[in-house]
DNA sequence: TTGTACGCGTTATCAG
DNA sequence: CTGATAACGCGTACAA
């Protein structure tokens, strides 16, 4: 049997060539199919009120007859706007930022925006690159968790791309949503001390990160409020493996700590690993509190006490703040929103009665 | 002292108006500043060989004198290409997909692409919407973890946007990277049985998800290889809370299970919660294995045995496969890559000697 | 090697 | 209410 090829409609009466592909339909294709002008198609598709319902109908039909999909690129070029938000965070693998990302995408999506995800890995160079990409992509706005206090966002300002900084403030004045790291850290450490732990240590992040420093300061404040307590501090890189190393060193000191305040969730896991190596039992041999509530924290043995940050809401609010400032292009003064973390006492920080 | 305002260069000799904003520099601005044609600027900036080094130099200077940033939108419209990949996954909160996302972004970034992140929440409607958005954004390609076997990607095909399907295959023939779920599930369940657990249950995902079904089939296969063992099955929604509910029901049956094979990490946590409620101790009262290695799994008490998927490599390979097919626009036959998971035996699945 | 002119697909302006 | 037309910013064929 001979095959029976279906007839193919070709634009502009071109001849079919071997391997020729049907061109993607444009607004013009639709216009021809509907017997109207491209302008009318545009109006019909965008719900412009000044257009006859009958034409709208005809255009709609024609549009999905030819399988038309609006070209967002062309639209963006013409309107000079984009429906995309860039999200720059250190690491999507950190559950805190995973939750933030979820918050940002949820809020963005609700208003028709999509999210460009960029991991900066606490690397200033990567951060710069991603910022440049975001600028060239003409994203509508940027949600940024900056690597340090001096990240340069002047280019974004020039391009009039609004920025909301999260988690860590910038030296420069910008919209920002931050969490009271100092207060959270102090509360956690005080709690440890109140429980009777006598040598609480702090495992914090790199000194470049504002949150790492704030959490360390909170720890110090609590320590100083109780005379006679030593400060035992280690800086790690906010990552699990780094914390294991740091904790080992602390544990190898002549006078090792008997409790830990750890500055984020991945490092909490890393510290727990070091503890396990030494057969130190959390909640009896050592006290333990970490920053950031992770899904697994309640299910550890014993359950881990944490300073919980409102990560998802933080992401949502950041995105909303951004989109709000998109609607009001007028220069407002920067808004700074400060959220409070919550100390959730589970069992890891509790000290059993001496026996 | 009078302030001494710096002179402002204005394009096209416009008068300064109150509140006037400097227009973002374009290739034209640079051309004027450098005293060459826009075409030369374009060529210089894109490293076109046929252009005098001296001009290149002059253009470069002019470019950053006026603070020029290429407009990616315009470039995309002109070249009909984009450097963005859309990533559609059920939930970035699931550590498996977090790792996949990290893999995709890492590989994409290495070749100058960026990643559009979309959560589908196992919702066909959301999936459709995101697919449409990706199409309109004219993304270069799509990495998709489809909600079901019948997700419609014909529109993408028409638009000649390549798709790599991950984790779950489509009925349709496409590039795909999957993991041997059946084999992994069977190995996990067999291991449980070998350890002497006599009533292993399976908590799997929604029947719509291919992986949920494959893992269930793997469980069943193992059960049937050992006569006399009952099949105890619950379907949940791949989420933590859903699994808690499902596990409770299983536990409330007259003949409750004495071991669990759980189909992903969030549900593992949910199941552990139900177990904890009943004071059932994992590794002594009940056996436990779950799919997906999570960062916390080794640090639970006891450490959780898992079927580890190569999540990060999977993401990397998906992105690379996509970008490869971007380079070879010729129609190749679909590639299907199958990765093997690894059973990692820790303590949760081990059965203590009867005593 | 360089410049001119056109088109990528849309939307906005301006007549009719 | 509708249609021509210009412009968004860039890359490239073509001409010089």
Report on this model:
The structure is a homodimer of 355-residue chains. Chain A has 355 residues and is α/β, with parallel strands linked by helices. Among the domains of chain A are: 27-70, Orthogonal Bundle (434 Repressor (Amino-terminal Domain)); 181-309 and 342-349, Rossmann fold (3-Layer(aba) Sandwich). Chain A is 41% helix and 15% strand. The first copy, chain A, contains twelve helices and twelve strands. In chain A, the strands form two sheets. Chain A has a six-stranded parallel beta sheet with strand order 2-1-3-4-5-11, sandwiched between helices. A six-stranded mixed beta sheet of chain A has the order 7-6-8-9-10-12, sandwiched between helices. In chain A, helix 1 crosses helix 2 (38-45) and helix 8 packs parallel to helix 9. Chain A starts with 26 loop residues before the first helix and ends in an 11-residue tail after the last strand. The model of chain A is unreliable at 1-19 (pLDDT under 50). The interface between A and B is large, with 54 and 54 residues.
Categorize the overall geometry of chain A. elongated
Mean pLDDT of chain A: 92
What's the CATH architecture of the domain at 181-309 and 342-349 in chain A?
3-Layer(aba) Sandwich
Q: Which pair has the most extensive contact?
A: A-B, 54 and 54 residues
User: In percent, how much strand structure appears in the residues of chain A?
Assistant: 15-25%
Helix segment count of chain A?
12
């Amino acid at each position: 049997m001979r095959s029976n090829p279906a007839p193919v409609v070709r634009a502009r009466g071109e001849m079919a060539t071997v391997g020729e592909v049907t061109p993607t339909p444009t607004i013009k294709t639709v216009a021809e199919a509907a017997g109207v002008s491209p302008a009318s198609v545009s109006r019909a598709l965008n719900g412009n009120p000044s257009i006859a319902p009958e034409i709208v109908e005809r255009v709609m039909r024609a549009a999905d007859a030819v399988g038309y999909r609006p070209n967002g690129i062309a639209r963006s070029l013409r309107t000079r706007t984009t429906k995309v938000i860039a999200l720059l965070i250190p690491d999507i693998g950190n559950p805190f930022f995973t939750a933030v990302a979820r918050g940002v995408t949820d809020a963005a999506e609700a208003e028709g925006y999509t999210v460009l995800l960029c991991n900066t890995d606490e690397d200033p160079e990567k951060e710069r690159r991603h910022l440049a990409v975001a600028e060239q992509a003409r994203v509508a706005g940027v949600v940024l968790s900056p690597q340090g206090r001096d990240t340069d966002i002047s280019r974004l300002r020039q391009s009039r791309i609004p920025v909301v900084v999260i988690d860590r403030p910038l030296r420069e004045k910008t919209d920002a949503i931050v969490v009271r790291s100092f207060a959270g850290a102090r509360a956690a450490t005080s709690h440890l001390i109140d429980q009777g732990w006598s040598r609480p240590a702090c495992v914090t992040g790199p000194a470049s990160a504002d949150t790492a420093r704030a959490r360390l300061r909170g720890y110090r404040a609590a320590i100083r409020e109780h005379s006679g307590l030593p400060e035992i501090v280690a800086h790690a890189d906010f990552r699990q493996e780094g914390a294991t190393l740091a904790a080992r060193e602390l544990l190898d000191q002549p006078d090792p700590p008997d409790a830990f305040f750890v500055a984020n969730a991945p490092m909490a896991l890393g510290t727990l690993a070091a503890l396990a190596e030494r057969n130190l039992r959390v909640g009896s041999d050592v006290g333990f509190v970490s920053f950031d509530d992770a899904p697994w924290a309640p299910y550890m043995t014993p359950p881990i006490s944490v300073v919980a940050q409102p990560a998802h809401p933080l992401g949502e609010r950041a995105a909303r703040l951004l989109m709000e400032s998109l609607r009001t292009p007028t220069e407002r003064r920067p808004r700074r929103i400060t959220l409070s973390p919550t100390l959730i006492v589970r069992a890891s920080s509790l000290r059993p009665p001496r026996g």
